[in-house]
Amino acid sequence: MKVLITGGGCSEKIDDVRSITNFSSGKTALQIAKTIQDLDPAAAIDFLLAESAVQPKAAAKSGLDSQAQNVTVKNFRSCDDLQKLLKEQLTSNSYDLIFHAAAVSDYTVQSVVADGKEFTPGKISKFSGAGQLLVKLKKNPKLLESIPAWAKKKSAAAKLVGFKLTSDASQEERAAAVQKLFSVKNPPDFVISNDLSEITPKSHPCVLWRNYGGLGTIVARGQVQDIVRKIYALGS
After folding, report:
1. Is 9:23 a contact under the CB 8 Å cutoff?
2. Angle at Cα 116 formed by Cα 114 and Cα 118, nearest 5°?
3. FRET label pair with 85: which of 31, 75, 79, 130, CA 20 to 30 Å apart?
């Protein structure tokens, strides 16, 4: 088995010292890899991890053998970086499973207006002294929807797993958020949903949804490692 895993949060640059980001640590990606490695030590695992995420070499407590020859890591910072890496990996390599667990930014910085003067991100090293700073955002593409097209030639049979994190959402709101992922032109095969209100340092409960003709159906519930075992069994 060959597995591609994305993890961690994107960071969208405002200037050389500031960015818009999120709290994703990348620990879920490491847990996925550890579970797969326990199931199948011979499985090849390629990571695409955020620069700010916990890196495999620093995660000795996770039990992941990051020194194994069949484990590789590439880092990204922004949504654009991750998009390029994903396209490169999927058009160059064949995968059996793809876990897209990275917390991709919904928006990136289009421009910054300082006291009425507009700047392009990267064109100024640091904003300081401005009385008013306005950050204009533009929507990023949904990478999950592009993965099947990029994987078409090399990994047409790969099972794609998306993630949907909600926060203090009702069961109806969680279900609606998941169904939205299955309603697109190129939906994933599975979605793992979780809610921030239920995640603790010792517990990460998830729900596994499977795509049946564009409609998501719950097939399992449990801790993230239990869900990964279920997907691995279905994918292998």
Report:
1. yes
2. 65
3. 31
Torsion sign over Cα 197, 199, 200, 203: positive
Q: Where are the beta strands (DSSP E) in the chain?
A: 2-7, 12-15, 18-20, 44-50, 71-76, 97-100, 107-114, 117-119, 133-139, 159-166, 190-195, 205-212, 215-223
Residue 225, classed as helix, strand or coil, is helix
Count of alpha carbons within 13 angstroms of residue 117, beta-carbon side: 6
Query: For residue 210, which amino acid is it?
Result: R
Sheet of 159-166: strand order equals 71-76, 44-50, 2-7, 97-100, 159-166, 190-195, 205-212, 215-223
Return the SS3 of 173: helix
Higher-confidence residue of 59 and 226: namely 226
Please give the average per-residue pLDDT across 214-231, as a whole number: 94
Taking residues 6-24, report their average pLDDT: 92
- pTM (two decimals): 0.92
**pLDDT tens-digit series, residues 195-216:** 999 999 889 999 999 999 889 9
Listed in sequence order, the residues at least 6 apart from 180 whose beta carbon sits closer than 8 Å to its beta carbon are none
Contact 191, 178 (CB under 8 A): yes
Q: Beta strand pairing status for 117-119 and 133-139?
A: unpaired
Give CA separation, 184 vs 115, 153, 187, 212, in Å. 41, 20, 5, 13
Pairing of strands 205-212, 190-195: antiparallel
Element (H, E) at 150: helix 143-150
